[in-house]
Design a protein that fits this description.
Blueprint lengths: L21 E10 L2 E11 L4 E5 L6 H8 L7 E6 L2 E2 L5 H7 L1 E3 L12 H8 L8 H5 L3 H20 L15 H14 L4 E5 L7 H18 L2 E5 L3 H7 L2 E6 L2 E6 L1 H5 L2 H8 L9
Parallel strand pairs: 3-8, 3-9, 6-7, 7-8
Antiparallel strand pairs: 1-2, 1-4, 4-5, 9-10
Helix pairs in contact: 3-6, 5-6
């Protein structure tokens, strides 16, 4: 993250000489007369784990919506693997390699664990509508491959034994995990996690940290997360961007961010008696 800013050389060494997987250049969006995000620039290495933090209302989820084409930017560009995403909608952005989870869990709760993951694999099916309706051999071959892949993904996260359980019956932490597995099923090059630790107890958060590191190691993809749990962010993120009022006020390593005065002010406010010079 921040590859173009030579004053903050915190891109992981393993990504230092590789083309970035994602670049945001002067990204911004206005809603009526309100500027929600302005001049957002960030660069993400192909296997980087980076965090996006900031006070409530800073514009973090709006940026995720811009990246995944829920919103189209008012200005600026998003490049994925060097390609401008301006002509993509959400479905095409997902096919191009962007997957995300949400603040509020969005599982199909009356469907099984396996069925939820199969939904994530839909963009990789190799049969047509007619073949599906008529249950032709191509359909059964593709379904067999998809179910085998689903079990592989679930096994990575120790969930293969509950593949037949209804998603809505799972404990909260397991539902969060399943949503991540479903996102991974789409085959992303960038995984966006929107407050993945929200509502989790300390043990579940610790497991989440381990799973994020596992995803990075096994799938070798970039991970971008919005999170308020600073222990999680500082514990696993290699680069961190800090938003306030829709603008990126700081970029750096966890150590740099922790002592940055602009970040401290954004979270805690100015000390009494301190004013602008």
């Amino acid at each position: 993250m921040g590859r173009r800013d030579t004053k903050t050389p915190f891109v992981p060494e393993r990504d230092a000489y590789k083309a970035p997987v994602m670049e945001c250049v002067n990204l911004g969006i206005d809603f009526g007369g309100l500027t929600a995000v302005n001049d957002f620039c960030i660069t993400i290495g192909p296997t980087e784990i980076c965090g996006l933090i900031g006070p409530n209302g800073a514009g973090k989820t709006t940026i995720f919506n811009l990246l995944t084409k829920v919103y189209q930017p008012t200005r600026g560009s998003v490049y994925l693997n060097g390609v401008d995403t301006k002509n993509l909608n959400s479905e095409k952005a997902n096919r191009a390699g962007l997957a995300r989870t949400f603040q509020n869990i969005r599982l199909f709760k009356n469907m099984t664990v396996m069925e939820n993951v199969l939904v994530g694999l839909h963009n990789k099916t190799e049969y047509g509508l007619g073949e599906a309706i008529l249950r032709m051999p191509a359909y059964w071959r593709a379904e067999k491959i998809a179910r085998a892949r689903t079990l592989e993904l679930l096994e990575i996260f120790d969930m293969q034994g509950i593949h037949g359980h209804k998603a809505g019956s799972l404990p909260y932490g397991s539902q969060r995990r399943l949503e991540i597995v479903r996102a991974l099923a789409t085959g992303p090059t960038v995984l966006l996690l929107d407050e993945p630790a929200a509502g989790m107890n300390p043990a579940e958060t610790e497991e989440l940290m381990e799973n994020i590191l596992k995803i990075n190691k096994v799938f070798k993809i970039a991970i971008v997360l919005i999170e308020h749990d600073m222990k999680l962010v500082m514990g696993i993120c290699e680069g961190i961007g800090v938003l306030n009022y829709g603008k990126l006020i700081a970029k750096g390593t966890p150590a740099e961010i922790q002592k940055n005065p602009l970040v401290i002010e954004a979270y805690l406010g100015k000390a009494e008696g301190e004013g602008d010079a």
